[in-house]
Amino acid sequence: MNLSFRHDAFLKRAGSRAFCVGLLVALALAPTAKAQDMSFDVDEAESGGSKSKEPAKAGGDEASAEVSGSASGSTDTGDVLSELTRTTKKEKEIGEGGLPREKEVVEKIYAVQRMYVLRGGRFELAPSIGDTFNDQYVTHPSLGAGLNYWITNVLAVGVNFLWYQGIESESKLNFSIRRSARLAVPITEYQLGAHLNFTYVPIYGKFEMFNDAIFQWDAYILGGVGMLRTRPVAVIDPAVRTFDFDWRVAFNAGIGLRVFITKWLTIFGELRDYMYMEKLENLQVSLSARASQSTWIDQNSTLTNNVTVQLGFTMFFPFTFEYSYPK
Amino acid sequence: MKRFAITLMTIVAVLAGFGPGVASRAHAQEVQVQGPLAGAPAVIGLRVYRAMRFQIQLHAAMSLQDEYSRAILPGGQLMFHPVDWLGIGVWGGFAAANIDSTLTDQIVAKGQTNAVNVLSLPNAKLFPEQIGRMKWVAAPQLSFIPLRGKLGIFEKLFVDTDFYLFGGVAFVGLEERSNVDFAYARMCSDMTKTGGLAAAIRCVERTVDPAQGGSTRTSRVAIAPTFGAGLSLYLADFLSMSIEWRGMPFPWNTSGTDESGHPRGDFPDQSINESDRLSHFNHMLTLGFGFYLPTKPKISTAD
């Protein structure tokens, strides 16, 4: 009796040891799981979907190995682990009341990497600075702020506001052309802009830095319509002419790159073209009606492209989010 | 070295105005795990595209934000990468075409010459003959590749990608308007008193009109720092597509006009010479295809 009792106790301790051994084996295999989580490997680069099937196959192999192990039934070998496994299998196969349990079905499970950040349903606040990229005669640097609402993870609607007045400057080139070639290039001054935008994210990716740190990033396209408040700068007849700001309808389109620092903080850079019909200063000076304001503005409108580079950072609200899983 | 580079990148981010709080969070993205995974690399099974490989690149470069003339430079690049994050080589291009800007066309069409600007613009029709043009560029340089990753397009197409910075010394072959000394310019200017403006124009015109003989243009080599950044998209084990921006700040006389040199300040000095070379931040965009030797990259392991 005592001996039998001690034997049962030994089996329990052996079961605990087996569990520990299993845990260690699982930990030893863990780097593979980690590599999958941050995969930059060959298979994923070649095909986004092909790699995902492998875990299911491995799962299937494990299941079949388990079944064959129980069928072979290594009994009375003195191997504590095998003994324990055999006993457990028996318990599994026979349910309550001696009725056989339903056969276990091996399902294929596809491993899909979680998105680093979920944007859907979150707000994004984006302060930025910008500068003109295409105009050599006058620069339109700006201070900006944007607010986006992400309808889905890849589509957002938002507004952005830009302030220009006071930080613009005429280039030296303009003065040089006037002096050297006796030509004046009509230029304009901006005050502010307000625009409605849609943003779409077709491209995403990640970078590792020296195999130590990983950065997630995405590229986006955006476009919209808004208002721009501008006025001509008097260069043809500056002694007489002065102009007031007026509103112009402006369309905009651009591309951008966003790098995630954390799950709520990013830095971004974008190239955006603000297109609008500009009213420029009249190149002709009417000597008979020089003081008449109606002669100061060119009657024709000129399509103007203000291509800007904007750099800034964005903050997502709320800061945290929850992944949803199938029940 | 890797730690230093990461720290350097973090400092750059901080200096860019994102604050120390942000930088510390960025650093927190390092893989910091305990137990068996401690010290493991962030990635294994990575294609090592650059280490111990030569890159032969064929490219087309185009100068940007040019005032008077845009250069199109087909060329090549030869690089060797002793490690995956560093390369050494030479970049070059030869101007197959110089395209005049709209401003040049406008000056040709509407430029005015009078007694004051006769030296700067003796004949508007000949203005293209006096503007500076970039003819070739050769730049020994180092490439630094801090970021390696990939991008997915519409969640269907995945491309291995790396981001690189580079810096070096550029030797730029330039062609500019030949110098016109003060004595000759003064002699021409004085002709307005005897023969009128037309005589002065005819006199100065000789300095820009190749049809009248003489050396109207001079070639020289400008030495300047060059730096930039780019992305390489690896289309195959041995092939990549690159797009990069390059900056080359140096002074040159892009317009061929009298801009500076007066002893009393930044005014014309009635001569065309070195003092009329104004500082320009010259931009360039390059699109290229790189071929790698050996053709098979190594695959990184957990070691």
Describe this structure in words.
The complex is a heterodimer of chains A (327) and B (303). In chain A, 26% of the residues lie in helices and 39% in strands. By secondary structure, chain A is α+β, with helices and mostly antiparallel strands. Chain A folds into two domains: 2-98, no CATH class; 123-317, Porin (Beta Barrel), CATH 2.40.160. In chain A, strands 1-3-4-6-7-8-9-10 form an eight-stranded antiparallel barrel. In chain A, strands 2-5 form a two-stranded antiparallel sheet. In chain A, β3 and β4 (155-163) form a beta hairpin. The longest helix of chain A has 36 residues, at 2-37. Chain A is elongated, with a radius of gyration of 35 Å. In chain A, 23% of the residues are buried. Chain B has 303 residues and is an alpha+beta fold. Chain B has a single domain, classed as Porin, CATH 2.40.160.20. In chain B, 20% of the residues lie in helices and 45% in strands. Chain B has five helices and eleven strands. Chain B has an eight-stranded antiparallel barrel with strand order 2-3-4-6-7-8-9-10. In chain B, strands 1-11 form a two-stranded antiparallel sheet. In chain B, β2 and β3 form a beta hairpin. In chain B, α4 runs antiparallel to α5. Mean pLDDT of chain B is 86; it is low at 13-30.
Taking pLDDT < 50 over at least 5 consecutive residues as the criterion, the unreliable ranges of chain B are 13-30
- The level 1 CATH classification of chain B is Mainly Beta
Helix content of chain B: 10-25%
CA radius of gyration of chain A is 35 Å
- For the record, give the distance between the C-alpha atoms at the N and C termini of chain B, rounded to a whole number: 17 Å
Order of strands in the sheet with the most strands of chain A? 1-3-4-6-7-8-9-10
Largest sheet of chain B, in brief, is:
8 strands, antiparallel, barrel
Helix-strand category of chain A: alpha+beta
**Any idea of the CATH topology of the largest domain in chain A?**
Porin
Strand share of the residues of chain A? 35-45%
Number of strands of chain A: 10
Biggest interface: chains and residue counts?
A-B, 49 and 70 residues
From the alpha carbons, calculate the radius of gyration of chain B and give it in angstroms.
26 Å
Mean pLDDT score of chain A: 74
Low-pLDDT stretches of chain A:
1-16, 18-85, 87-91
CATH architecture of chain B: Beta Barrel
How would you describe the shape of chain B?
elongated
